[in-house]
Amino acid sequence: AALEIFERINDQKGISQAYNNMGIVYASQRNYKKALECYLITLSIKKKLGDTKAMASTLINIGATYYKLEEFDKSFMYYREALVIKRQMKDEKGEATCLMNLGLVQGNVGNMDSALYYYNASLVLRRKIKDRRGVVSSLATLGQAHTNIGNFAVAEVYLLEADSLSEKLGT
Fold first, then answer.
1. What is the per-residue pLDDT across 83-117, written as a single tens digit (0 to 9) for each?
2. Is the dihedral of CA 58, 61, 65, 70 positive or negative?
3. What is the SS3 assignment for 131?
4. How many CB atoms lie within 10 A of CB 164?
């Protein structure tokens, strides 16, 4: 209904938002192929409009969808493109999230050195901007990654710090 109205009045921003919303609904229903179709249409419109902030969000949605589809090369590519935009925008919180996502992709394909690099970069940035919840997430992810590769002493340090900070935050 909303999409039809936006199309009738040729409201490109509204059309892209409607497709984005449909993508979110499809993703929540685990219909990732349909979600991807919607997100790609959204991205195309956002590019035409020059809406780089919205492009970055859509690129993240596309990266996440490819991740769910286990198409890790494509996921990495879209997360990387979002990272470039987040850096250009000086959005350090968004940059830290993109770094974490890139690490998750690398970890899933067995590139643990690369995954640890991205997780650490995310942690450093989150500490810098005092994103305490983000710091907990980065610490916990680093702890889990080190557990997975058998670095139990290192993992323990990260996990204890994550637990301590999480308690202080009441989470």
1. 999 999 999 999 999 999 999 999 999 999 999 99
2. positive
3. coil
4. 12
